Amino acid sequence: LGTSIIALTFDGGVILGADSRTSTGNYIANRASDKITPLCDNVYTLRSGSASDTQAIAGYVQHFIAQHQAEEGDQVTVKTVANLVKMMAYNNKDFMQAGLIVAGFDKHGGGQVYSISLGGTVTATPFAMSGSGSTYINGFCDKYWRENMSEQDAMEFITRALRYAMTWDASSGGCIRTVTITAAGVKRQFIQGSQIPPTYGELPRQQVVA
Amino acid sequence: MGSNAGGFDFDLCKRNAMLENKGMTLPKAWKTGTTIAGLIYKDGVVLGADTRSTSGNTVADKNCTKIHFITSNIYACGAGTAADLEHVTEMVSGQLALHRYATGRQARVITAMTMFKQHLFKYQGHVGAALVLGGYDLNGPHLFTIYPHGSTDSLPFATMGSGSVNAMAMFEAYYKDDLDRPEAMALVARAIRSGVMNDLGSGSNVDLCVITKDGVDYLRNYEYLQAKTYTRQFPVKYPPGTATIVKQRVLSLKGVEVIEGVAEEMDVS
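^ Those are the sequences you sent over. The predicted structure of the assembly is below.
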Protein backbone atom coordinates (compact mmCIF):
# COMPACT_ATOMS: atom_id res chain seq x y z
CA LEU A 1 0.00 0.00 0.00
CA GLY A 2 1.69 3.15 -1.15
CA THR A 3 -0.61 5.42 0.66
CA SER A 4 -1.59 8.74 2.11
CA ILE A 5 -3.41 8.43 5.43
CA ILE A 6 -4.24 11.15 7.95
CA ALA A 7 -6.15 11.23 11.23
CA LEU A 8 -6.81 14.15 13.50
CA THR A 9 -8.84 15.06 16.52
CA PHE A 10 -11.22 17.98 16.35
CA ASP A 11 -13.61 19.59 18.79
CA GLY A 12 -15.97 16.65 19.37
CA GLY A 13 -14.26 13.62 17.85
CA VAL A 14 -11.82 12.37 15.22
CA ILE A 15 -11.68 12.36 11.44
CA LEU A 16 -9.78 9.69 9.51
CA GLY A 17 -8.93 10.24 5.86
CA ALA A 18 -7.24 8.10 3.20
CA ASP A 19 -6.65 7.88 -0.54
CA SER A 20 -7.80 4.78 -2.44
CA ARG A 21 -4.86 3.47 -4.44
CA THR A 22 -3.35 0.00 -3.93
CA SER A 23 -0.37 -0.65 -6.19
CA THR A 24 1.69 -3.75 -6.95
CA GLY A 25 4.86 -2.35 -8.44
CA ASN A 26 3.78 0.00 -11.22
CA TYR A 27 0.32 -1.49 -11.64
CA ILE A 28 -2.64 -0.18 -9.69
CA ALA A 29 -4.30 -3.31 -8.37
CA ASN A 30 -7.27 -1.46 -6.88
CA ARG A 31 -8.02 2.19 -7.68
CA ALA A 32 -10.95 2.37 -5.26
CA SER A 33 -9.73 0.56 -2.17
CA ASP A 34 -10.98 1.26 1.32
CA LYS A 35 -8.09 1.73 3.71
CA ILE A 36 -10.28 2.74 6.64
CA THR A 37 -11.15 -0.45 8.50
CA PRO A 38 -13.39 -0.75 11.56
CA LEU A 39 -11.85 -2.52 14.55
CA CYS A 40 -14.91 -2.06 16.73
CA ASP A 41 -17.97 0.23 16.78
CA ASN A 42 -16.13 3.33 17.94
CA VAL A 43 -12.54 2.69 16.80
CA TYR A 44 -11.29 2.59 13.22
CA THR A 45 -7.84 2.07 11.76
CA LEU A 46 -6.01 3.47 8.73
CA ARG A 47 -3.77 0.94 6.99
CA SER A 48 -0.48 1.60 5.22
CA GLY A 49 2.33 -0.74 4.20
CA SER A 50 1.76 -4.29 3.05
CA ALA A 51 -1.92 -4.89 2.32
CA SER A 52 -1.83 -8.55 3.38
CA ASP A 53 -0.05 -7.79 6.68
CA THR A 54 -2.39 -4.94 7.63
CA GLN A 55 -5.51 -6.89 6.63
CA ALA A 56 -4.33 -9.84 8.71
CA ILE A 57 -3.62 -7.64 11.75
CA ALA A 58 -6.99 -5.92 11.39
CA GLY A 59 -8.70 -9.33 11.18
CA TYR A 60 -7.07 -10.58 14.37
CA VAL A 61 -7.73 -7.32 16.27
CA GLN A 62 -11.39 -7.31 15.14
CA HIS A 63 -11.70 -10.84 16.45
CA PHE A 64 -10.18 -10.20 19.89
CA ILE A 65 -11.76 -6.79 20.41
CA ALA A 66 -15.19 -8.21 19.56
CA GLN A 67 -14.77 -10.59 22.49
CA HIS A 68 -13.49 -7.74 24.66
CA GLN A 69 -16.41 -5.55 23.59
CA ALA A 70 -18.87 -8.25 24.61
CA GLU A 71 -17.42 -8.08 28.11
CA GLU A 72 -16.98 -4.31 28.35
CA GLY A 73 -20.27 -3.27 26.78
CA ASP A 74 -20.32 -0.72 23.97
CA GLN A 75 -17.45 1.47 25.06
CA VAL A 76 -14.10 -0.12 24.35
CA THR A 77 -11.36 2.45 24.93
CA VAL A 78 -9.32 3.57 21.95
CA LYS A 79 -6.14 3.02 23.95
CA THR A 80 -6.94 -0.67 24.47
CA VAL A 81 -7.41 -1.25 20.76
CA ALA A 82 -4.26 0.70 19.91
CA ASN A 83 -2.32 -1.34 22.43
CA LEU A 84 -3.47 -4.62 20.91
CA VAL A 85 -2.50 -3.45 17.43
CA LYS A 86 0.87 -2.40 18.80
CA MET A 87 1.46 -5.81 20.36
CA MET A 88 0.85 -7.54 17.05
CA ALA A 89 3.13 -5.16 15.20
CA TYR A 90 5.90 -5.19 17.81
CA ASN A 91 6.00 -8.94 18.47
CA ASN A 92 6.14 -9.77 14.76
CA LYS A 93 8.24 -6.84 13.65
CA ASP A 94 10.76 -8.96 11.71
CA PHE A 95 8.12 -10.33 9.37
CA MET A 96 5.80 -7.42 8.82
CA GLN A 97 5.62 -4.13 7.03
CA ALA A 98 2.65 -2.43 8.63
CA GLY A 99 2.14 1.20 9.57
CA LEU A 100 -1.25 1.76 11.14
CA ILE A 101 -3.06 4.72 12.64
CA VAL A 102 -5.72 3.79 15.20
CA ALA A 103 -8.30 6.48 15.92
CA GLY A 104 -11.64 6.60 17.65
CA PHE A 105 -13.87 8.13 20.27
CA ASP A 106 -14.62 6.92 23.78
CA LYS A 107 -16.39 8.74 26.59
CA HIS A 108 -13.34 8.74 28.88
CA GLY A 109 -10.79 10.37 26.61
CA GLY A 110 -12.92 11.82 23.81
CA GLY A 111 -11.39 11.68 20.36
CA GLN A 112 -7.93 10.08 20.28
CA VAL A 113 -5.39 9.26 17.59
CA TYR A 114 -2.58 6.71 18.03
CA SER A 115 0.05 6.17 15.37
CA ILE A 116 1.80 2.78 15.29
CA SER A 117 4.92 2.78 13.15
CA LEU A 118 6.85 -0.10 11.55
CA GLY A 119 8.73 -1.26 14.64
CA GLY A 120 5.74 -1.07 16.95
CA THR A 121 6.18 2.39 18.48
CA VAL A 122 2.92 3.96 19.66
CA THR A 123 2.60 7.73 19.74
CA ALA A 124 -0.54 9.49 20.92
CA THR A 125 -0.91 12.80 19.12
CA PRO A 126 -3.80 15.07 18.14
CA PHE A 127 -2.74 14.76 14.50
CA ALA A 128 -1.02 11.87 12.71
CA MET A 129 -0.21 10.94 9.15
CA SER A 130 1.52 8.02 7.51
CA GLY A 131 2.23 6.34 4.21
CA SER A 132 4.44 7.32 1.29
CA GLY A 133 2.30 10.36 0.45
CA SER A 134 2.58 11.88 3.88
CA THR A 135 6.17 12.96 3.25
CA TYR A 136 5.04 15.47 0.62
CA ILE A 137 2.68 17.38 2.87
CA ASN A 138 4.87 17.98 5.91
CA GLY A 139 5.20 21.66 5.08
CA PHE A 140 1.52 22.07 4.30
CA CYS A 141 0.37 20.39 7.51
CA ASP A 142 2.87 22.31 9.56
CA LYS A 143 1.41 25.59 8.35
CA TYR A 144 -2.31 24.83 8.26
CA TRP A 145 -3.04 22.44 11.10
CA ARG A 146 -4.49 23.94 14.26
CA GLU A 147 -5.52 22.23 17.46
CA ASN A 148 -9.28 21.87 18.17
CA MET A 149 -10.64 22.86 14.78
CA SER A 150 -14.36 22.63 14.09
CA GLU A 151 -15.59 19.56 12.23
CA GLN A 152 -16.01 21.48 9.00
CA ASP A 153 -12.55 23.06 9.16
CA ALA A 154 -11.00 19.70 10.03
CA MET A 155 -12.71 18.04 7.05
CA GLU A 156 -11.56 20.79 4.74
CA PHE A 157 -8.00 20.49 6.05
CA ILE A 158 -7.90 16.73 5.61
CA THR A 159 -9.29 16.74 2.09
CA ARG A 160 -6.90 19.50 1.08
CA ALA A 161 -3.91 17.71 2.58
CA LEU A 162 -4.86 14.43 0.91
CA ARG A 163 -5.38 16.20 -2.36
CA TYR A 164 -1.77 17.45 -2.34
CA ALA A 165 -0.40 14.12 -1.19
CA MET A 166 -2.25 12.34 -3.99
CA THR A 167 -0.91 14.80 -6.54
CA TRP A 168 2.72 14.52 -5.58
CA ASP A 169 2.93 10.85 -4.63
CA ALA A 170 2.70 8.37 -7.51
CA SER A 171 1.61 5.61 -5.15
CA SER A 172 -1.37 7.61 -3.88
CA GLY A 173 -4.44 8.61 -5.81
CA GLY A 174 -7.96 7.67 -6.79
CA CYS A 175 -10.64 9.05 -4.49
CA ILE A 176 -10.73 10.41 -0.95
CA ARG A 177 -12.51 8.45 1.77
CA THR A 178 -13.15 9.89 5.23
CA VAL A 179 -14.69 8.56 8.42
CA THR A 180 -15.85 10.89 11.21
CA ILE A 181 -16.27 9.38 14.69
CA THR A 182 -18.05 11.34 17.42
CA ALA A 183 -20.16 10.61 20.45
CA ALA A 184 -23.13 10.43 18.10
CA GLY A 185 -21.59 7.67 16.02
CA VAL A 186 -19.75 7.07 12.77
CA LYS A 187 -20.18 8.89 9.47
CA ARG A 188 -18.58 7.79 6.19
CA GLN A 189 -17.93 10.16 3.31
CA PHE A 190 -16.58 9.71 -0.16
CA ILE A 191 -15.15 12.25 -2.62
CA GLN A 192 -14.89 10.94 -6.16
CA GLY A 193 -11.67 11.51 -8.06
CA SER A 194 -13.36 13.70 -10.64
CA GLN A 195 -14.72 15.96 -7.88
CA ILE A 196 -11.28 16.62 -6.39
CA PRO A 197 -10.20 20.05 -7.66
CA PRO A 198 -6.95 19.81 -9.66
CA THR A 199 -3.84 21.29 -8.07
CA TYR A 200 -1.67 23.79 -9.89
CA GLY A 201 -0.50 22.48 -13.25
CA GLU A 202 -2.83 19.49 -13.34
CA LEU A 203 -5.43 18.98 -16.02
CA PRO A 204 -9.01 18.69 -14.75
CA ARG A 205 -9.89 15.09 -14.00
CA GLN A 206 -12.52 13.38 -16.11
CA GLN A 207 -15.28 11.23 -14.78
CA VAL A 208 -14.20 7.60 -14.96
CA VAL A 209 -16.76 4.81 -15.05
CA ALA A 210 -17.97 3.66 -11.60
CA MET B 1 6.58 -23.70 20.45
CA GLY B 2 6.95 -20.03 19.55
CA SER B 3 5.73 -17.36 21.96
CA ASN B 4 1.98 -17.08 21.59
CA ALA B 5 1.96 -13.44 20.56
CA GLY B 6 -1.38 -12.59 18.99
CA GLY B 7 -1.86 -15.69 16.85
CA PHE B 8 1.12 -15.56 14.47
CA ASP B 9 3.92 -18.11 14.42
CA PHE B 10 6.78 -17.28 12.10
CA ASP B 11 9.26 -19.91 13.32
CA LEU B 12 9.47 -21.58 9.91
CA CYS B 13 10.33 -18.25 8.29
CA LYS B 14 13.36 -18.05 10.57
CA ARG B 15 14.30 -21.59 9.63
CA ASN B 16 14.02 -20.85 5.91
CA ALA B 17 16.12 -17.71 6.24
CA MET B 18 18.78 -19.70 8.11
CA LEU B 19 18.83 -22.42 5.43
CA GLU B 20 19.15 -19.82 2.72
CA ASN B 21 22.11 -18.29 4.52
CA LYS B 22 23.76 -21.69 4.60
CA GLY B 23 23.58 -21.85 0.82
CA MET B 24 20.38 -23.76 0.09
CA THR B 25 18.44 -22.47 -2.91
CA LEU B 26 14.73 -22.21 -2.32
CA PRO B 27 12.66 -24.06 -4.94
CA LYS B 28 11.03 -21.91 -7.64
CA ALA B 29 7.34 -22.29 -8.27
CA TRP B 30 6.09 -22.84 -11.82
CA LYS B 31 3.55 -20.26 -12.85
CA THR B 32 0.76 -20.55 -15.34
CA GLY B 33 0.35 -17.53 -17.56
CA THR B 34 -3.32 -16.70 -17.41
CA THR B 35 -6.08 -14.23 -18.05
CA ILE B 36 -8.91 -14.41 -15.55
CA ALA B 37 -11.65 -11.87 -15.04
CA GLY B 38 -14.96 -11.30 -13.33
CA LEU B 39 -17.64 -8.68 -13.16
CA ILE B 40 -20.84 -7.99 -11.28
CA TYR B 41 -23.86 -7.30 -13.46
CA LYS B 42 -27.52 -6.68 -12.74
CA ASP B 43 -28.51 -10.22 -11.71
CA GLY B 44 -25.24 -11.69 -10.47
CA VAL B 45 -21.62 -12.41 -11.36
CA VAL B 46 -19.92 -13.43 -14.60
CA LEU B 47 -16.50 -15.10 -14.30
CA GLY B 48 -14.21 -15.76 -17.25
CA ALA B 49 -10.87 -17.47 -17.90
CA ASP B 50 -8.62 -18.61 -20.71
CA THR B 51 -7.64 -22.29 -20.95
CA ARG B 52 -3.88 -22.38 -21.50
CA SER B 53 -1.62 -24.01 -18.95
CA THR B 54 2.12 -23.50 -19.49
CA SER B 55 5.29 -24.91 -17.99
CA GLY B 56 8.05 -22.56 -18.99
CA ASN B 57 7.62 -21.80 -22.70
CA THR B 58 5.68 -24.96 -23.57
CA VAL B 59 1.94 -25.29 -23.42
CA ALA B 60 1.27 -28.10 -20.98
CA ASP B 61 -2.51 -28.24 -21.35
CA LYS B 62 -4.29 -26.63 -24.28
CA ASN B 63 -7.70 -26.79 -22.69
CA CYS B 64 -7.49 -26.78 -18.90
CA THR B 65 -10.19 -25.55 -16.52
CA LYS B 66 -9.30 -22.46 -14.54
CA ILE B 67 -12.75 -21.77 -13.11
CA HIS B 68 -12.83 -23.94 -10.00
CA PHE B 69 -15.93 -25.10 -8.15
CA ILE B 70 -16.06 -23.94 -4.54
CA THR B 71 -19.73 -24.42 -3.66
CA SER B 72 -22.91 -24.55 -5.73
CA ASN B 73 -23.14 -20.75 -5.53
CA ILE B 74 -19.43 -19.82 -5.45
CA TYR B 75 -16.73 -20.30 -8.10
CA ALA B 76 -13.12 -19.13 -8.19
CA CYS B 77 -10.91 -18.37 -11.19
CA GLY B 78 -7.27 -19.12 -10.46
CA ALA B 79 -3.96 -17.71 -11.69
CA GLY B 80 -0.52 -18.70 -10.48
CA THR B 81 0.93 -22.10 -9.67
CA ALA B 82 -1.42 -24.76 -11.04
CA ALA B 83 -0.84 -27.27 -8.23
CA ASP B 84 -1.30 -24.67 -5.51
CA LEU B 85 -4.55 -23.49 -7.08
CA GLU B 86 -5.98 -26.95 -7.46
CA HIS B 87 -5.20 -27.90 -3.88
CA VAL B 88 -6.23 -24.66 -2.20
CA THR B 89 -9.56 -24.49 -4.07
CA GLU B 90 -10.32 -28.12 -3.30
CA MET B 91 -9.40 -27.56 0.34
CA VAL B 92 -11.70 -24.57 0.75
CA SER B 93 -14.45 -26.33 -1.19
CA GLY B 94 -14.25 -29.29 1.19
CA GLN B 95 -14.16 -27.09 4.28
CA LEU B 96 -17.21 -25.19 3.05
CA ALA B 97 -19.12 -28.39 2.39
CA LEU B 98 -18.58 -29.37 6.03
CA HIS B 99 -19.37 -25.80 7.09
CA ARG B 100 -22.67 -25.99 5.22
CA TYR B 101 -23.67 -29.14 7.03
CA ALA B 102 -22.65 -27.68 10.37
CA THR B 103 -24.51 -24.38 9.89
CA GLY B 104 -27.45 -25.64 7.80
CA ARG B 105 -27.09 -22.59 5.54
CA GLN B 106 -25.82 -21.79 2.07
CA ALA B 107 -22.20 -20.66 2.17
CA ARG B 108 -21.39 -16.96 1.90
CA VAL B 109 -18.79 -15.65 -0.49
CA ILE B 110 -17.02 -13.72 2.29
CA THR B 111 -16.62 -16.98 4.21
CA ALA B 112 -14.77 -18.52 1.26
CA MET B 113 -12.73 -15.32 0.92
CA THR B 114 -11.74 -15.38 4.61
CA MET B 115 -10.73 -19.04 4.44
CA PHE B 116 -8.55 -18.35 1.42
CA LYS B 117 -6.89 -15.24 2.83
CA GLN B 118 -6.12 -16.76 6.21
CA HIS B 119 -4.58 -19.82 4.58
CA LEU B 120 -2.52 -17.81 2.09
CA PHE B 121 -1.30 -15.34 4.72
CA LYS B 122 -0.17 -18.21 6.91
CA TYR B 123 2.10 -19.36 4.09
CA GLN B 124 3.42 -15.84 3.50
CA GLY B 125 2.98 -15.89 -0.27
CA HIS B 126 4.69 -19.23 -0.87
CA VAL B 127 1.35 -20.76 -1.91
CA GLY B 128 1.24 -19.20 -5.37
CA ALA B 129 -2.49 -18.75 -5.73
CA ALA B 130 -4.06 -15.57 -7.09
CA LEU B 131 -7.84 -15.82 -7.35
CA VAL B 132 -10.86 -14.00 -8.64
CA LEU B 133 -13.61 -15.28 -6.36
CA GLY B 134 -17.21 -14.71 -7.34
CA GLY B 135 -20.58 -15.90 -6.14
CA TYR B 136 -24.16 -15.13 -5.18
CA ASP B 137 -25.40 -15.50 -1.61
CA LEU B 138 -28.15 -14.08 0.61
CA ASN B 139 -26.50 -10.65 0.49
CA GLY B 140 -26.42 -10.57 -3.28
CA PRO B 141 -23.59 -10.91 -5.81
CA HIS B 142 -19.98 -10.60 -4.63
CA LEU B 143 -16.64 -10.39 -6.41
CA PHE B 144 -13.25 -10.50 -4.67
CA THR B 145 -9.62 -10.65 -5.75
CA ILE B 146 -7.28 -12.62 -3.51
CA TYR B 147 -3.50 -12.24 -3.80
CA PRO B 148 -0.88 -14.88 -2.90
CA HIS B 149 0.21 -12.99 0.20
CA GLY B 150 -3.32 -12.97 1.55
CA SER B 151 -4.64 -9.49 0.78
CA THR B 152 -8.11 -9.12 -0.71
CA ASP B 153 -10.05 -6.45 -2.56
CA SER B 154 -13.77 -6.17 -3.17
CA LEU B 155 -14.50 -4.81 -6.62
CA PRO B 156 -17.29 -4.51 -9.20
CA PHE B 157 -14.93 -5.80 -11.91
CA ALA B 158 -11.55 -7.49 -11.57
CA THR B 159 -8.82 -9.20 -13.54
CA MET B 160 -5.75 -11.27 -12.56
CA GLY B 161 -2.92 -13.15 -14.17
CA SER B 162 -0.30 -12.27 -16.77
CA GLY B 163 -3.03 -11.11 -19.15
CA SER B 164 -4.76 -9.01 -16.51
CA VAL B 165 -3.73 -5.65 -17.96
CA ASN B 166 -5.15 -6.64 -21.35
CA ALA B 167 -8.43 -7.71 -19.82
CA MET B 168 -8.59 -4.67 -17.54
CA ALA B 169 -8.21 -2.39 -20.55
CA MET B 170 -11.47 -3.86 -21.92
CA PHE B 171 -13.25 -3.50 -18.60
CA GLU B 172 -12.15 0.08 -18.02
CA ALA B 173 -13.33 1.03 -21.50
CA TYR B 174 -16.70 -0.72 -21.56
CA TYR B 175 -17.88 -1.55 -18.03
CA LYS B 176 -21.10 0.04 -16.76
CA ASP B 177 -23.13 -0.65 -13.64
CA ASP B 178 -26.17 -2.92 -14.06
CA LEU B 179 -25.34 -4.50 -17.38
CA ASP B 180 -27.76 -7.16 -18.51
CA ARG B 181 -26.77 -10.79 -18.96
CA PRO B 182 -25.84 -10.87 -22.69
CA GLU B 183 -23.90 -7.61 -22.38
CA ALA B 184 -22.04 -8.83 -19.31
CA MET B 185 -21.11 -12.15 -20.92
CA ALA B 186 -19.99 -10.42 -24.10
CA LEU B 187 -17.80 -8.01 -22.12
CA VAL B 188 -16.12 -10.72 -20.03
CA ALA B 189 -15.54 -12.83 -23.15
CA ARG B 190 -14.05 -9.80 -24.85
CA ALA B 191 -11.76 -9.14 -21.91
CA ILE B 192 -10.50 -12.73 -21.88
CA ARG B 193 -10.12 -12.68 -25.64
CA SER B 194 -7.96 -9.59 -25.29
CA GLY B 195 -5.69 -11.55 -22.96
CA VAL B 196 -5.69 -14.61 -25.20
CA MET B 197 -4.67 -12.58 -28.26
CA ASN B 198 -2.16 -10.23 -26.68
CA ASP B 199 -0.56 -12.22 -23.86
CA LEU B 200 1.78 -15.10 -24.64
CA GLY B 201 0.96 -16.81 -21.37
CA SER B 202 -2.75 -16.98 -22.16
CA GLY B 203 -4.42 -18.76 -25.00
CA SER B 204 -6.67 -21.38 -26.48
CA ASN B 205 -10.29 -20.89 -25.51
CA VAL B 206 -12.58 -18.83 -23.30
CA ASP B 207 -14.54 -20.35 -20.41
CA LEU B 208 -17.40 -18.43 -18.80
CA CYS B 209 -19.34 -19.01 -15.61
CA VAL B 210 -22.53 -17.06 -14.84
CA ILE B 211 -23.75 -17.16 -11.23
CA THR B 212 -27.15 -15.79 -10.25
CA LYS B 213 -29.59 -16.44 -7.45
CA ASP B 214 -31.26 -19.02 -9.68
CA GLY B 215 -28.10 -21.06 -10.12
CA VAL B 216 -24.95 -21.45 -12.16
CA ASP B 217 -24.34 -21.62 -15.90
CA TYR B 218 -20.90 -23.13 -16.44
CA LEU B 219 -20.13 -22.43 -20.10
CA ARG B 220 -17.10 -24.56 -20.78
CA ASN B 221 -15.37 -23.43 -23.98
CA TYR B 222 -17.85 -20.62 -24.58
CA GLU B 223 -15.55 -19.45 -27.37
CA TYR B 224 -13.24 -21.64 -29.42
CA LEU B 225 -10.43 -19.33 -30.49
CA GLN B 226 -7.73 -21.76 -31.46
CA ALA B 227 -9.63 -24.70 -32.86
CA LYS B 228 -7.61 -27.33 -34.69
CA THR B 229 -7.96 -27.33 -38.48
CA TYR B 230 -7.69 -31.13 -38.56
CA THR B 231 -9.27 -33.40 -35.98
CA ARG B 232 -7.86 -36.87 -35.62
CA GLN B 233 -10.33 -39.77 -35.59
CA PHE B 234 -10.27 -41.94 -32.54
CA PRO B 235 -10.15 -44.94 -32.61
CA VAL B 236 -8.22 -45.00 -35.84
CA LYS B 237 -10.13 -47.13 -38.35
CA TYR B 238 -7.98 -48.97 -40.86
CA PRO B 239 -9.83 -51.42 -43.08
CA PRO B 240 -8.41 -54.97 -43.22
CA GLY B 241 -5.88 -55.23 -46.05
CA THR B 242 -4.44 -51.71 -45.60
CA ALA B 243 -1.08 -53.10 -44.57
CA THR B 244 0.60 -55.43 -47.11
CA ILE B 245 1.25 -58.88 -45.58
CA VAL B 246 4.95 -59.70 -46.13
CA LYS B 247 5.19 -62.97 -44.17
CA GLN B 248 2.64 -65.08 -42.31
CA ARG B 249 3.11 -67.73 -39.60
CA VAL B 250 0.21 -69.41 -37.79
CA LEU B 251 0.78 -71.03 -34.43
CA SER B 252 -1.87 -73.26 -32.85
CA LEU B 253 -1.70 -73.25 -29.10
CA LYS B 254 -1.50 -76.83 -27.75
CA GLY B 255 -1.74 -77.81 -24.17
CA VAL B 256 -3.52 -74.73 -22.92
CA GLU B 257 -5.83 -75.51 -20.03
CA VAL B 258 -8.78 -73.33 -19.14
CA ILE B 259 -9.66 -73.57 -15.47
CA GLU B 260 -13.00 -72.40 -14.18
CA GLY B 261 -11.84 -70.49 -11.14
CA VAL B 262 -13.76 -70.24 -7.88
CA ALA B 263 -13.61 -66.66 -6.66
CA GLU B 264 -12.27 -66.51 -3.13
CA GLU B 265 -14.02 -64.09 -0.80
CA MET B 266 -12.01 -61.03 0.13
CA ASP B 267 -11.00 -61.15 3.74
CA VAL B 268 -12.81 -58.36 5.53
CA SER B 269 -12.48 -58.29 9.27
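Chain B touches chain A at residues 3, 5-8, 10, 13, 114, 117-118, 120-121, 124-125, 145, 147, 149-153, 155-157, 165, 172, 175-177 (CB under 8 Å). The first strand of chain B starts at residue 36 and ends at 40.

Shout if you want it in another format.
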